Amino acid sequence: MHAEIIGVVATFIATVLLAIPLGKYIAKVLAGERTVLDFMAPLERFFFRVSGIDATREMTWQESLVALLTINLIWFVYAMVILMIQGSLPLNPDHNPSMSPDLAFNTAISFLVNCNLQDYSGETGVSYFTQIGVLMFLQFVSAATGVAALAVVMNAMKERTTDKLGNFYNYFVKTITRILLPLSVIVAVIFLLNGMPMTWEGRDTITTLQGDTVQVSRGPVAAFVPIKHLGTNGGGFFGANSAHPFENPNYLTCIVELVSQSVLPMALVFALGFYLKRRKLAVMIFSVMTIGFLLLTISTVMLEMKGNPEIARMGIDLHSGAMEGKEVRFGAAISAYWSILTTVISTGSVNAMHDSYMPLSGMNQMLGMMVNCFYGGKGVGILNFYIFIIIAVFISGLMVGRTPEFLGKKIEAREMKIAILIVLLHPFLILVGTALSSYFAAHDTAMGYWFSGKASGWLSNGGYHGFSQMLYQYTSSSANNGSGFEGLSDNNPFWNITTGFVMILGRFLPIIGPVAIAGILAQKKYIPESAGTLQTDTATFGLMVFGVIFIIAALAFFPALALGPIAEHFSMH
Amino acid sequence: MKSQNTSLFQSDMVREALGQSFVKLDPRSMFRNPVMFTVELGTAVMLIVTLYTLISGDKTQGSFIYNLVVFFILFLTLLFANFAEAIAEARGKAQADSLRKTREETRAKVVVGNRPGFNLVTTEVMSSQLKKGDVFFCEAGDIIPTDGEIIEGLATIDESAITGESAPVIREAGGDKSSVTGGTKVLSDRIKVQVTTEAGESFLDKMIALVEGASRQKTPNEIALTILLAGFTLVFVIVCVTLQPFAQYARTPITIAAYISLFVCLIPTTIGGLLSAIGIAGMDRALRANVITKSGKAVETAGDIDTLLLDKTGTITIGNRKATSFWPANGVEEKNFVEICVLSSLADDTPEGKSIVELAGREATQKLSIEGATMIKFTAETRCSGVDLPTGRRIRKGAYDAIKRLTENAGNRFPEETADRVKQISSNGGTPLVVSEDEKVVGVIELQDIIKPGISERFERLRRMGVKTVMVTGDNPLTAKFIADKAGVDDFIAEARPEDKMNYIRREQQQGKLVAMMGDGTNDAPALAQADVGVAMNSGTQAAKEAGNMVDLDNDPTKLIEIVEIGKQLLMTRGTLTTFSLANDVAKYFAIVPALFIASIPALQSVNIMHLHSPETAILSAVIFNAIIIPALIPLALRGVQYKPIGSSALLRRNLLIYGLGGIIVPFIGIKLIDLIVTLFY
Predict the structure, then answer these.
(1) DSSP states of B10-36 as a string?
(2) Separation of CA B426 from chain center
(3) Which end of chain B lies in a sparser environment, N or C, as judged by fewer CB atoms within 10 Å?
(4) Distance from C-alpha of B509 to C-alpha of B530, rounded to nearest angstrom
């Protein structure tokens, strides 16, 4: 028991310690300073020359957004086409079929938006060409998109008045060549040394001890898994994701996967501090995020290690905790840690079945995604947090007797309008989606094209747990997390298409909003600080931000959570 | 009229406000406030549900009585919010009315065919008939019929009706003290006054309209806050609407009354209901400080002021400089020098001039006469004044450089010992006034400033608020620095010409700072207009009053400090009540959410941490708490949250503790108590 907890604590501390120097490095890369990886410059110049981009031309926030949305649209069309014809493309040794339009739509969007919700299973649903050429490609570029958007916002937060916020393409390309690619290579080597497969050959047939023959899927896994975590993508090479022995062979790879998925979201917070030379601000942000994360983690680890009272009633020993749906090679504690880490940042990879966690652990996982900014996804976590800062600044600015300002820029009606729309969006998408599906499930509607059979058929459990499954699915989509509660029959037009739209909206609006706010603020006059100015890098202000997050992001879901995990928990005890 | 009533609720005001509370139920006026408008919609739905249960006898929506009670409480919530706004309006109006009373219908003597001089023909007209541009005549004993500017003559005027100050003031044509206010009384002499505003368009009339809501516009900050509150309202619309299919899935019927109660409790009705009252109360507090604001925005901006431009005279120092010593030049006899000084000042009615005569004493002045002499007035160009005696003696006194130029142009040397003396006086904070006779320097008069007691503490307080104070003075830099250091201002503008003020304001504004200043003269008008908060003195010229965005009836230059605090109070009150309102939601969730589901999911009883008696009493307690918290906070909204200059972080900590933590705890206690009481009747 103790060793398990030490494993969790050591992993967390190692991640933070790695994140600080990495943050300093990222700040240098984004600021265009000299770094050890300057030898990548010729490669970058080659990309820019081929695509005719002048990477030194500074762009406005509007131009940056147009660039971001344009390249994303192109990737979407590319991904959708390949997915629908993958069956007839090379690198498909297992002869997996092409996807149906609705599944291709869902999958293309899912990987494009860094969500990686998978309504297919890797073994049978996609070819190697798709895994590497579409999915892994999107895992790189979607992560870099988030970082590049954050870079635009960080540039806008500097102390000056401007509409020139650096070059989006420059941020984007350098994020890949100098951050994601080198780190992926290092992590891949560790995985290879631990026996993760890396092959272009198709299924292998093995004969078991009992004499049965079994088909075992494999492929270029070690190339795929590093960026799956480093990019907070989370889409598994195999259906079982990081619970699969080929995708996560042992406890060491488990820790490496944990560190690699959380180190960049943490490092980006520090990068913000180094980049803006506002270390205290970064510490405030990091502390609020960490406190939120720890609250969720500690309670989940405790719940999972304690085990399920229903099972105890059957007279089964709960010594190793709630092990249903978990891998014995990992254990309850690190799996609990993983489940919260993967939901607070937007990875969504799993090393155990979230459906089988204790009800309140499931709630904590959902809360992580509902808040979506305790570290949060690649770049976008801080963008989400930025919106909460804007709202907290507005209220607390008034409380100190000044019209609100953040980093020397006045926050007025226009910024407030955008911030509020973005804040509204997340509960809107989750609650409306869940309302729609629960309405059909409650009335057991015949769904026609949308779902074969009646609506309640998509639930593997009825009652509170069934409600949690639907709530989880939309939460995961809107938060661009991509983890599944599973147990839900989600590969059908209804779920593919509704979650597809939720993913698009939940991805791009929360990028557009903060970039727009930061861009508008950057154009405003810079007001120097005085003794009357609200200090945003203090513990008090951190508390205020936490309060805003708690009341807006968490409490808005209280009625829904009461009907799902909370009701299930109390019925169980 | 200084306000005498400290009571927040006077019975006549309350009566008027109660009536207004019903009038304001008109959806067209409610629409301005999105939060309360949704409450009104909810109340209307409850009315229909109540009538339905009465007529149909259908019990699935709860009993008729229960629905009626919920409807009644929601209706009260609306009335309370309206009452808050109405009482704030009533108070502001009462304050303005008491000022307006001073200008009841009086007869005005309108001059027919105005020509210079007081040999004139007048006709009597009622004051309300006066038009802009009319010229009227007033003499001792007359009440001035309306606001105007003296175009001829001089008079002592009793302005106590407006300022509460009993000492009469002198107002005269030309210069910076040419404005007269309707309702004040002429004590001596006679004046011709030109009407400067149309009837019903005086600053006071505008202010009353502002308070009454007819022309009240939301300030930028109020708009931003309304957007935030509307956003929160929308979040809870989503939460409550989607709850319906959730409940269907969970097979938990939820009554319409419960839905609406949950919704009304969660949306920020507390701040929504009090928001406009807070804004009006801010203007009202300014008015109580005898400051007429031309817009609510000006009050709000005052809270943000970074830089305060203050005139030295009257603000930092008491009244004016006084002569303290005579320093004759070498070879000039002291007695002779004093005599020259007195001669130069006998006809000089500036405070400095008078103080010179005073210092010289009776003996020296008695036998001197300036009969037949020509007075040389002070001008900004020559920067000296004096007298040409019939005997041909040309006496001048003025600033060092002005007299130096004068003497050197005439080919005379400026004596070194006098130059040294000038420097010495300046470095001691005094003002040297060099005197010459026939372009030869005869000596220097030392003038000294007396700094107001307690003023440096006030500047310290401003500094802690983050406001930089700048002293504006016509003194030379040395003197200015001495006084600036002694008084504790952060910066000064010495030898200031009107355009220097303007340039300083522009420079500060370019750095993104907000600047406030006070002024009275016509040459202050551009700077008053440029400043973010320009306070014109009521005694000042019409141009100055038009240019500024506030008018101070007391003509008190230290008023700016109060105005800044009023602005800060206004913003703080908004911020703290918003925090309180949102923090209340935590308890309300825990009251209502279990109540919604307990009937069908008994396990959720564990979430009922307040142990409320039953779902019905829980819902009733929450909506009752939600309703009565509004009137309970009206006094706070009207008085404003107290501002303490303890630094922004400490202030935030303090307010977060009181209104944030308090906002979480108070409703838990309140709802539980109400539940205990409601249970008695249930």
Answers:
(1) -HHHHHHHHHHHHHTT-HHHHTTSHHH
(2) 36
(3) C
(4) 9
d(CA B267, CA B35) in angstroms, rounded, equals 7
Segments in B57-131 forming alpha helices (H): 64-101
Q: Which residue, chain included where needed, has tokens 């809870």? A: B236
Q: How many Cβ pairs closer than 8 A exist between chain A and B?
A: 215
Considering only CA atoms, which of A521, A485, A481 is closest in space to residue A232? A481
- Whether chain A has a CB inside 8 Å of the CB on B297: the answer is no
Place of tokens 């008023």: B559
Give the closest residue to B631 by CA, choosing from B12, B23, B8, B94. Answer: B8
Cα–chain center distance at B365: 46
- Cβ(B212)–Cβ(B276) under 8 Å? no
Q: Using a CB-CB distance cutoff of 8 angstroms, which residues of chain B are in contact with residue A436?
A: 245
CA A164, CA A61: separation in Å to the nearest integer?
8
Residue pointed to by tokens 């978990």: A326
What digits encode the pLDDT tens for the residues B543-563? 788 888 888 888 777 788 888
Known catalytic residue at B311:
yes
d(CA A150, CA A130): 28
Amino acid letter, A74: I
Q: Which residues of B fall within a CB distance of 8 Å from A531?
A: 463-466, 647-648
Q: Distance between CA A46 and CA B378 in Å, rounded? A: 77
Query: Which residues, other chains included, contact B247 with Cβ-Cβ below 8 Å and sequence gap of 6+?
Result: A563, B253, B254, B596, B597
**ipTM, interface predicted TM-score of the complex:** 0.90
The single-letter code of the amino acid at B376 is: I
Q: Is B423 helix (H, G, I), strand (E, B) or coil?
A: helix
Q: Quote the CA–CA distance of A257 and A255 in Å, as a whole number.
A: 5
Query: Structure tokens of A343?
Result: 């939901």
Q: What angle do CA B511, B513, B519 make, to 5 degrees?
A: 120
Catalytic residue among B134, B311, B520, B585: B311
Q: Are A81 and A72 in contact (CB under 8 A)?
A: no
pLDDT digits (tens, 9 = 90+) for B359-404: 888 877 777 777 778 888 777 677 788 888 888 888 888 888 888 8
